């Protein structure tokens, strides 16, 4: 194949199949974590959960129910996170994150709840691109 044909083939691929997405990076981790943040701050559990791979994450239905329950308890979220460490292990991206979550209870009569924890996310590449396939402690989102 000539160079022009190779470039045209690369340009016709979807965003998730581009070479820079083939290898795990800090940018991929930040993009997925930002999707979690956006889902929380937009009060959109489906947006938050779309950052996770439901087919690869162990016991995803229980996690999904836990997250939806959290969205029913709180009416507003503010999120801040800082990635402290990333590496790859067995083809997965591992990310350690200092995560802060402030949640305002429904009705707003009670003071906001403030949680801070160091979370460990595992990310893997699948047909839909990179997704979160596990995290600990999961109880943070409850």
Structure characterization notes:
The chain contains five helices and four strands, in the order αααααββββ. The protein has a single domain, classed as Nuclear Transport Factor 2, Chain: A (Roll), CATH 3.10.450. 20% of the residues are buried. With 142 residues, the chain is α+β, with helices and mostly antiparallel strands. It is globular. The N terminus is likely disordered.
Biggest β-sheet: strands ordered side by side in the sheet: 1-2-3-4
Global structural class: alpha+beta
The CATH class, by name, is: Alpha Beta
Number of helices: 5
The total of beta strands comes to: 4
- In whole angstroms, how far apart are the ends? 53 Å
Integer average pLDDT? 87
CATH topology: Nuclear Transport Factor 2, Chain: A
What is the helix fraction of residues, given as a range? 25-40%
Q: Which stretches are poorly predicted, pLDDT < 50 over at least 5 residues?
A: 1-20
Quick summary of this structure?
By secondary structure, this protein is α+β, with helices and mostly antiparallel strands. The chain has one domain: Nuclear Transport Factor 2, Chain: A, CATH 3.10.450.
Q: Any key phrases for this structure?
A:
37% strand; 142 residues; 35% helix; 5 helices; disordered N terminus; alpha+beta; globular; four-stranded antiparallel beta sheet; Nuclear Transport Factor 2, Chain: A
List the helices and strands and how they pair.
Elements: H1 3-12, H2 19-22, H3 26-41, H4 45-49, H5 60-73, E1 74-89, E2 92-105, E3 113-126, E4 129-136
Antiparallel strand pairs: 1-2, 2-3, 3-4
């Amino acid at each position: 194949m000539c160079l022009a044909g190779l470039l045209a083939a690369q340009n016709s691929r979807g965003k998730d199949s581009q070479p820079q997405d083939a290898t795990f990076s800090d940018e991929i981790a930040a993009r997925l974590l930002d999707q979690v943040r956006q889902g929380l701050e937009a009060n959109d559990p489906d947006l938050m959960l779309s950052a996770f791979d439901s087919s690869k994450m162990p016991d995803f239905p229980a996690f999904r129910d836990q997250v939806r329950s959290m969205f029913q308890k709180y009416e507003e979220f503010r999120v801040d996170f800082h990635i402290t460490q990333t590496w790859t292990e067995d083809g997965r991206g591992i990310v350690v994150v200092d995560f802060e979550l402030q949640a305002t209870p429904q009705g707003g009569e009670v003071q906001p709840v403030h949680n801070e924890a160091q979370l460990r996310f595992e990310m893997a590449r699948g047909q839909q691109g990179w997704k979160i396939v596990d995290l600990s402690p999961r109880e943070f989102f409850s």
